[in-house]
Amino acid sequence: MGLFSHLQANQHLLNEQELIHLNNMMDKENFSLLKNSTLKELADRLYVSPNTIVRMAKKLDYRGYTELKLAIETEHNKSSFLKKGNRLKLIDQMNRTEELLSSSTVKEVLRLILAANHIYFFSCGPSKFPCEEMKEKLRILGFESSLYYEPHVMRQRAKKLKENDLVFVVSLSGETKTPLDAARLVKLTKAKMISITGFSQNSISQIADVTMYTFYDKLTYADMDVSSRLGIYYVLNYIFEELAPLC
């Protein structure tokens, strides 16, 4: 099981400070320091005790610092190998998104869909297109399903959700203002919320009832986000293929 699989399964066990320390360890700019650091040296750089790092590693289901360090090094080397120039190949973004899928999470998503009276998708920008496709597929299976991507309408809908409603909030960054504002309103209702975001500690995933992640390589052009949404398509299609035989 790779690093991202460990994180997907166990990151909820980490507290806020541990998440910050882990992000610092995983930062590619710090990789050379991590690679050549002993446990004590790294602890000194992070201003924590060595035991803090060991406990964090064990929460992630590693035996200790050395095993966690090796997992981060392996992931770094894999990323370097998979990159085409400075970009990660699309096929490898898909493969690594698959690594992030947890069978227990998928089962819970299926349970929530089957129990829902109405399924909503809150998203905007290019991320709304895979949601549009999934909305139509759910309708084919007989589910009531809707997509909202305009800020005002999304907020109004979020305020009126009922107990048996289910909402997918979809955003690569997990910080996009429109879906994030709506997600915060969803938390004030009795509806259930599933987040689909890029793999990171982000505001939307932190308030969702169920979190799902994609792996992507951020790409901008003329200050516009043009990152691939293939990972979102993959996650939603995976859910659909698991759901269809149950209907």
TrEMBL record:
Q: Which SUPFAM superfamilies match?
A: Homeodomain-like, SIS domain
Record carries keyword Coiled coil: no
In its UniProt entry, what is this protein called? Phosphosugar-binding transcriptional regulator
Q: List the molecular function annotations (GO) for this entry.
A: carbohydrate derivative binding; DNA binding; DNA-binding transcription factor activity
Start and end residues of each SIS domain:
109-247
Which keywords describe this protein according to UniProt? Answer: DNA-binding, Transcription, Transcription regulation
Q: Which residues form the HTH rpiR-type domain?
A: 1-79
What's an example GO BP annotation here? carbohydrate derivative metabolic process
